[in-house]
Design brief:
Number of domains: 2
Pfam family, one: Amidohydro_1
GO molecular function, one term: hydrolase activity, acting on carbon-nitrogen (but not peptide) bonds, in cyclic amides
Protein name: Enamidase
Cofactor: Zn(2+)
CATH topology of the largest domain: TIM Barrel
Number of strands: 20
CATH class of the largest domain: Alpha Beta
Largest sheet: 6 strands, mixed
Shape: globular
Domain Amidohydrolase-related: 263-376
Radius of gyration: 20 Å
Structural class: alpha/beta
Strand order of the largest sheet: 3-2-7-17-18-19
Amino acid sequence: MAHDAPQATGPSKLVIRNIGLILSGALEKPILDGDTIVAENGKITAIGRYKDLNTEGATTIVEANGTTVAPGLIDSHVHPVAGDWTPRQNQIGWIDSNLHGGVTTMISAGEVHMPGRPRDVVGLKAMAIFAQRAFWNLRPGGVKVHAGAPVIECEMVEEDFKELAAAGVKLLGEVGLGGVKDGPTARKMVGWARKYGIQSTIHTGGPSIPGSGLIDKDVVLEADTDVVGHINGGHTALPDDQIRCICEGCKRGLEIVHNGNERSALFTLRIAREMGDLHRVILGTDAPAGSGVQPLGILRMVSMLSSLGDLPAELAFCLATGNTARMRQLDCGLIEVGRSADFVVMDKAQHSPGKNILESVQLGDLPGIGMTIIDGIVRTQRSRNTPPAGRVPEIVAK
């Protein structure tokens, strides 16, 4: 089992130089001008040309060798349980495997696979607080897992949400996976959660696990959660007219997941673009699930939406980084001064017909990952999961 990755023990300064392409994660300016990024003590302090920046005193120098640097990918929808183990597939090391797919941050949509998961109010609150504490203390491979997302039940009252928020809980599990499945009850509890700074997500589509059920457009719109979870189904999607109704009927986040209906994912993307609401689209995997663990799930979503959805690759990467960071109020996901120094360094895969990484992704190929960095610390080098990259970065001084 992957254990907590070592943290910096003193002042640190990271310099990434000779970058070929910097993807910002921001839709309004997806490509940045520069060949160097500097980070100190885990935060980005400068972006630009090497000759113009203060690179003295670096504790780690990464020679990018012309590769692409993007924000670390964010998986907006996972179901963790305990450390780097999942009982859904009885698999160890799934979070570390996702790190090798470029994912540096994960958001829990509920710890629903916990064996014997309590459904009484005292038990579900205790489990949520435990999960929030445990995953903030333990970062498998360095990955930041925002967990502790209780699945709400009908017996809860406003004071329960106040207590959860005071204990540090900031997320609700998917509304609809517990006893609350109707619009009026969901809306009332979502309102309580929002009052105390807890963000909410709703299950959308057909049932996925025992205890879940159909959540259609009427419930989704009335509940008014902050994120419409797996709008393309997890796995079974709603009809197109209902998906369109949700997209047009609210201004909340539209989450597309790997473990959903791919045609519905492309339909949602098209509607969002027609509405000028691409900023509302975020990506998740909904893993671990019945279809397993997908270490390259977010990369595959980026490639699929770019190639089949005719979305420029530099914008597709924003759906998995900056869009999610802004919607989830995270300090990562964007390459800008003051943000966490979380990066994925990659290049087009060897022998891809694309002339560069962006063209390669838009042709449907996955990039090769050469390095992941979290809080300014190199966590992995050559990915064990992606195809080999044409060029790879290297640590030249430390």
